[in-house]
Prior knowledge:
Layout: E1 20-24, E2 30-32, H1 35-40, E3 44-50, E4 56-60, H2 74-95
Antiparallel strand pairs: 1-2, 1-3, 3-4
Amino acid sequence: MAEKRGQTVKLIYDFPTQLSTEIGYEDGFWARVTCNRFRSYNGLRRILYLNEEGKGEYKDYNGPVYYFDSNIVLKDYLHHFNTLIHFKLKLINYNE
C-alpha cells in the first residue's frame, strides 16, 4: 500500500526500533512516540534500554534527523539551502 502513496524506498532506522523511543519537550515533558516520529524529531531524543538487572535505563540519542517519511537528512538539506541563499545574496550584491 505504501507504493500508492509514493513511498518506494525503505526508510533507514539508525537505532533499535524494538526499544521505547521518546522525545523531549522544552518544559521537561517526555512523550513516547513511534519510530517514524522519533527519527524525524529535531530536539531531545532518548531510548529506553534494559540493563543486566532488567531495570530501564535511558540513553540520549544524537543520531541524524530525517525529514518525515523520507531518507533525506535535515543537515544535508539545510547545507544545500544555505548555499543557495548565499549564492542569491552574491547575485543581489553584484547587481547593485
